[in-house]
Amino acid sequence: MSLVKQLYFPLRVISGALLIVWAAIHLYLSASLVKLLPIVGYFFIIDSILAIVGAIILFINLRILYLPLLVYNWINYLLVTESRVFPAPILGKPLPVINVYVIAVIIIDIILIALTTVTWIGSRR
Fold first, then answer.
1. Domain extents for the chain?
2. At CA 91, angle to CA 37 and CA 41, rounded to 5?
3. What percent of the chain has pLDDT over 70?
4. Are 65 and 19 in contact (CB under 8 A)?
5. At what angle do helices 38-59 and 66-85 cross, to 10 degrees?
6. Rounded mean pLDDT, 65-76
């Protein structure tokens, strides 16, 4: 049995748990953003719901949606990194704030991309 096949179940669970942590961070941030910047706050809420759906996909082993989940993780990573350098898609200006939440989300996004890629590859074998 290959190493990827042996790690398939634990990677799915860890990836799902990280998606829930990612969603929790964004739901926490959305509470203050809804008042300050409503469009960004509501975007965070919708994105958090999608992350929770992604965690459910991993937990129930819905293999057909692993590739879209990988694309979703890449989009989240690119949005958070792009919006620090270039104008954010909705606001039209860069978000210069680098704080503990941004760093945590970037790290989680990188880990999620790696784990979801391995999970997708493992699901095909």
1. 3-124
2. 30
3. 94
4. no
5. 150
6. 96
43: tokens are 């975007």
Judged by DSSP in three states, 37 sits in: coil
Token pair, residue 107, equals 């790290």
Type of residue found at 22: W
93 token code pair:
């200006």
Answer for the pair 51, 24: CB distance below 8 angstroms, yes or no: no
Query: HEC string of 26-60?
Result: HHHHHHHHHHHCHHHHHHHHHHHHHHHHHHHHHHC
- Cα 98 to the center of its chain, rounded Å: 18
18-58, pLDDT tens digit by residue? 999 999 999 999 988 888 888 888 989 999 999 999 999 99
CB 3, CB 10: distance < 8 Å = no
